[in-house]
Amino acid sequence: MPGRLVVFEGVEGAGKTTQLERLSLRLGRHGVAVRTLREPGGTAVGDEIRALLLRPGASIPPRSEALLFMASRAALMDEQVRPALARGEVVLLDRFFLSTYAYQVGGRGLPEREVREANAFATGGRVPDITVLLTLPVGDGLARAARRGEADRMESADRAFHDRVAGAFARFSDDGWQVSHPECGPIVAVSAVGSVNEVEDRVWGVVVAACPEVQG
């Protein structure tokens, strides 16, 4: 089976990590070789960047923030994602460049053209096979995130920032937006409302529709 890149996206607290782990276990039961990764992080340089970017109280200008995310992304692609795909594995990635479009373009107001060009350089043009966009009201997501413990630097941004990020994510599932952004590949919105098992079944249906060979 050829390698597949499956990305999980969504607002804070949408349940990306939980559903990624659930999908990994389910794919494993079908005999699929799976590699789970997250952004930022996953490499030595990426983990250092993650610690800096998420450190509560750290002051990082928007352009520097975006470039740090992309530096981590470039290392992850070169050291982890491409080798895993070459081995025929399914790579499950917790956030990818759609988050940059939401947080740094939508949330911080950076110019989209420059961000898109930098992302193309960081990813080497790799397009996800499917992006699962978990949807949840922003207030519900922030409440979930708060229950996990101390907020990280991104989570602790003001509500107006998170509303802008949520608005950006809402646009990404629009067919017209996807046509004008082919570098993002197919994006399918999946409701994150309901039990963990209910959401897992929705995610499974989306992934199987995009990559039917994963059923074995």
What does this structure look like?
The protein has 216 residues and is α/β, with parallel strands linked by helices. It has a single domain (4-215), classed as Rossmann fold. It has 9 helices and 5 strands; from the N terminus they run βαβααβααβαααβα. The protein has helices at residues 16-29, 44-54, 62-86, 97-107, 112-123, 138-147, 159-172, 175-180, 196-210, and strands at residues 4-10, 34-38, 90-94, 130-135, 187-191. The chain has a 5-stranded parallel β-sheet, with helices on both faces. The mean pLDDT is 94.
The CATH architecture classification is 3-Layer(aba) Sandwich
Helical fraction equals: 40-55%
Superfamily (CATH H level) name: P-loop containing nucleotide triphosphate hydrolases
Measure the end-to-end span.
Answer: 10 Å
Work out the helix count.
Answer: 9
- Strands side by side in the biggest sheet: 2-3-1-4-5
The dominant shape is globular
Poorly predicted sequence stretches spanning 5 or more consecutive residues: none
% residues in beta strands: 5-15%
Question: What's the helix and strand layout?
Answer:
Layout: E1 4-10, H1 16-29, E2 34-38, H2 44-54, H3 62-86, E3 90-94, H4 97-107, H5 112-123, E4 130-135, H6 138-147, H7 159-172, H8 175-180, E5 187-191, H9 196-210
Parallel strand pairs: 1-3, 1-4, 2-3, 4-5
